[in-house]
Amino acid sequence: MTAKIGIKQADELVAAARSAGLTVEVEIARRAGHHYEAADYTAPDSLSVRVRIEAPGTSHVISARWSKRLIKGGRGTLIAARETTSHSSTDLKPAGLSTALRRLVTASRNAGRAAEVKAKPRTLRRDQNTNGYVTSDGRYEVTPVYGPSIRGGDVTRPTEWCLKDRKGEYEPRYRPFLSDIRDILKERP
Q1: Of 18, 68, 69, 155, which sits 20 to 30 A from 185 (CA to CA)?
Q2: Nearest CA to 32 among 19, 45, 22, 42?
Q3: How far apart, in Å, are the Cα atoms of 188 and each of 140, 145, 162, 174?
Q4: Whole-prediction pTM value?
């Protein structure tokens, strides 16, 4: 268990951030009271707390500052809070801190995923040289096969499609519909 700051909202924010695995920096400063001669008033000692929460691997940061008078029943007051991302900087209200923390946790979780290289799906594009298609990486070629004229058939419409591997690792496959060829391409490396 970590040491308590003494300001309820700050304690809850720090505990939630640490449990989510975010980087948390807490800076606590104690300020001495000050006596005002003209009003014959002595301001009590106060506590100043700065909290900085950062999502590892991103430029997403929440920084907040609280103040609390050190008297019996003294309450912490949020002086300022700011959420900074790579593309914006926003001042936060006390109610917006938990929402900003959720955004920070999401940014932290997605930071690792953004670094992963995802394989692009193969797409078919028209081949300029033939009447068929070729995959985006150029490995597979899909050509139409025109069968003998059949009753009620059309010479301009292919009877089936042929999927050929240009590397020669797979045998040619014949399917009646182009959508079946696309399904085969999704399964192949």
Answers
A1: 155
A2: 45
A3: 10, 22, 15, 15
A4: 0.53
